[in-house]
Design a protein that fits this description.
Blueprint: H1 10-13, E1 19-26, E2 28-30, E3 34-36, H2 41-51, H3 57-62, E4 67-74, E5 80-89, E6 95-103, E7 108-115, H4 122-131, H5 133-137, H6 141-171, H7 190-230, H8 246-329, H9 347-376, H10 379-386
Parallel strand pairs: 1-7
Antiparallel strand pairs: 2-3, 4-5, 5-6, 6-7
């Protein structure tokens, strides 16, 4: 939408008796300019004046927290009106921000709904508002409806996290279900598991915060609905929301009570899963420490073995030359008693003919093996991965 809409114009509301006038827009975010409204600055100024938006409206929208506030003001022709601003947080950084202005003289509610999320299906919302009896008589019904969307969305995300957390719990072998096989922690990538668990803890914290803010918003909706429906004190705007009978007012109260109950139960579920993820982090940390101690023990033993091998190698370097020389001299291919003739017997040539090529073949095989080993990767590393 790029043009201003006269949804808050008092000339439009003259002769009207009840109903909701709603303008909707989808916001976006630019890394350079920040929040981008779905309208021109001129259009927003016109809507701001028509609805009597507070100066903090844009500041609330750009902030990260949820909000719920009420204020009274006068319309363009001096008629009193009660205004509300709600910001309902979704998954970061998505949100809904709703501004409502109720005119008691005509019982008409005008509203501006801005969102930064694709979750809300506007055609379905409009069709629901057309057939819902509370939408025309209860100004805060739309706020309750958006709150229901947020609670349901939070519940769906928690369900997805619970399924992933359950799979990780099974892989870690931290359950006693007879119909589900226990996983082997030794085959688990502990670093990856820790990152995943930290991800769950963070997201459960987000949902706990969001649901807590939704409870506060629902309490504000309940208080404002009770205040406006029964306010008779001097100096306050006298408004009767229950223009269609007490049953409609009771339905609104029941709707808010249901949402508060759903929000509280979803919050308890998120808190339980948050504690479960934290306990799995502790188990994972203990496993990591235990494996670290085993690895340290193996490293110490390997170091001792390495020292022993160095000793053996050193002793070999000292005695091997003389041992090899003694072995050669001990062979029956020498004639140590020869007088004036060669001490080498004919068999010595056979020894040279066999020993030298055999040594070259062994060195060639070793060289080819080392080349293939370096090309294909360290076999020891693949063996560790299998373990």
């Amino acid at each position: 939408m790029n043009q201003p809409s006269p949804i808050g114009s008092e000339s439009l509301l003259k002769g009207s008796k009840g109903g909701l006038r709603l303008l909707y827009g989808k916001c976006s975010w630019n890394s350079k300019s920040g929040l981008v409204l779905p309208m021109t600055e001129t259009a927003f100024k016109s809507i701001e004046e028509s609805l009597g938006l507070p100066e903090s409206f844009l500041k609330i929208m750009k902030g990260k927290g949820s909000r719920a506030m009420k204020y009274t003001s006068k319309g363009l022709n001096g008629n009193p009106r009660v205004c509300f601003v709600f910001k309902f947080g979704l998954f970061q950084p998505a949100y809904y921000q709703l501004a409502l202005s109720y005119y008691p003289k005509t019982s008409v509610t005008t509203g501006l709904l801005l969102s930064k999320t694709p979750e809300l299906k506007i055609p379905e919302l409009v069709e629901h508002l057309k057939i819902a009896p509370l939408a025309s008589s209860q100004p805060l019904y739309l706020a309750a409806l958006i709150a229901e969307v947020v609670v349901d969305s939070s519940n769906d995300r928690i369900s997805l996290f619970v399924l992933s957390l359950k799979k990780l719990e099974e892989a870690m072998g931290q359950h006693e279900y007879s119909n589900i096989p226990l996983g082997d922690p030794l085959k688990l990538d502990l670093m990856k598991a820790t990152r995943r668990l930290n991800f769950f803890v963070r997201n459960f914290n987000i949902e706990i915060t969001r649901l807590g803010s939704m409870l506060l918003a629902l309490e504000q909706i309940q208080q404002h609905r009770a205040y406006i429906g029964s306010s008779r004190e001097p100096g306050k705007v006298e408004i009767d929301f229950d223009t269609l009978g007490e049953d409609v007012g009771e339905q609104m109260d029941e709707k808010i009570a249901y949402l508060k109950n759903a929000c509280q139960n979803t919050l308890l579920r998120a808190e339980f899963q948050h504690k479960l993820a934290q306990s799995l982090i502790q188990v994972n940390a203990k496993s990591t420490i235990a494996l670290g101690k085993d690895a340290s023990t193996i490293a110490v033993d390997t170091k001792k073995d390495g020292a022993s091998m160095k000793t053996i190698a050193l002793m070999g370097m000292v005695f091997l030359p003389s041992t090899a020389l003694a072995a050669v001299f001990a062979m029956p291919v020498f004639d140590w008693n020869a007088r004036g003739a060669s001490i080498f017997k004919p068999g010595f040539g056979y020894y040279i003919a066999v020993a030298i090529p055999l040594t070259c073949v062994v060195l060639l095989i070793w060289g080819l093996g080392m080349r293939r080993w370096q090309k294909d990767g360290t076999p020891h590393e693949s063996e560790l991965n299998e373990l």
